[in-house]
């Protein structure tokens, strides 16, 4: 049973890592980061580091929230630069 759970954890981390590298949209990258984070949390629990797993479980959603806030702020800055004519792309 533990072998199958470890395979699921490895698959989640691999899918998340490949998705972060391959996808171009920032929100898709955040989703893939969450999938990678779920696999990492499962791996930490399998190795019975429950105190570390508690920290990972609490910091995962916070880091996702910070990523989303950064994406929104970057979009606002780019929109303002395009509006004012500062961006010449």
From TrEMBL:
Keywords: Membrane, Transmembrane, Transmembrane helix. It comes from Methanobrevibacter millerae. Pfam families: EhaD (PF09881). It comes from the Archaea. The chain crosses the membrane at residues 6-23, 30-47, 53-72. This is Energy-converting hydrogenase A subunit D. The lineage of its organism: Archaea, Methanobacteriati, Methanobacteriota, Methanomada group, Methanobacteria. InterPro entries: EhaD-like.
């Amino acid at each position: 049973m533990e072998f199958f759970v470890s395979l699921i954890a490895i698959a989640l981390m691999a899918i998340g890592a490949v998705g972060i590298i391959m996808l171009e949209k920032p929100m898709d990258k955040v989703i893939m980061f969450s999938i990678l984070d779920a696999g990492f949390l499962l791996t930490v629990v399998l190795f019975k580091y429950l105190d570390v797993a508690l920290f990972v479980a609490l910091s995962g959603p916070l880091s996702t929230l910070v990523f989303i806030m950064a994406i929104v702020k970057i979009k606002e800055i780019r929109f303002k630069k395009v509006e004012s004519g500062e961006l010449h792309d």
